[in-house]
């Protein structure tokens, strides 16, 4: 049960708490943790120069993934990171499908107010996940 767990991480306090809970869960099952961070790929400008933030966005995502993977490994957990271009909910669900995840863990950030009605990462993941979803209470 819950041998392969995916956690969404964006560097926020909410994501850090969700990752902490995912690490604790994976420690209990002896499974593997996959950390997913999404970034927005900026299109090249009409002049052919890179749009601001293109490299920084990917670099930042890879840095966030590396940080969470290091935390998991320090806790004795086998882990792997995935920095994906595009929408966060899609990236999380795509990785979960790719790795055959048993569980996705996300924080509850964005689950209140207008974002709850208009859509949020946890809400989208819950509706499109290929497996069970744990929405960690973080606030």
How many whole angstroms does the radius of gyration measure?
Answer: 15 Å
CATH architecture: 3-Layer(aba) Sandwich
SSE order in H/E notation? EHEHEHEHHE
The structure class reads alpha/beta
The biggest beta sheet reads: 5 strands, parallel
CATH homologous group name: HUPs
How many domains? 1
Helix content: 40-55%
Q: Terminal Cα separation, in Å?
A: 27 Å
Shape: globular
Beta-strand percent range:
15-25%
Uncertain stretches: 43-56, 111-118
| Overall strand count | 5
Number of helices: 5
Structural description of this entry:
The chain has 139 residues and is of the alpha/beta class. It has one domain: HUPs (Rossmann fold). The protein is built from five helices and five strands, in the order βαβαβαβααβ. It has a five-stranded parallel sheet, with helices on both faces. It is globular. The protein starts with a strand and ends with a strand.
Keywords:
single chain; 5-stranded parallel beta sheet; globular; Rossmann fold; alpha/beta; 139 residues
